[in-house]
Amino acid sequence: MPFRRVFSAPLLLAILPLLQCKSDVTGPESQLPPATQNGANTFGCLVNGRPWTPRGNTGTSNYAVLY
What we know:
The protein is an alpha+beta fold. The protein has 1 helix and 2 strands, in the order H-E-E.
């Protein structure tokens, strides 16, 4: 019985790193809007390797002018 315990502990510790969670690694391109051919007014690009999409509504500008 002690042999089984001594053998199973290192075996368990050796297998434990193999059971870690798999991360779903996707590139930044997957966060961009899909390309369209029907004029859906979508735009996105990579800026310094990070996805960027404009924020706004109905094609209006995002400028805030304060006087």
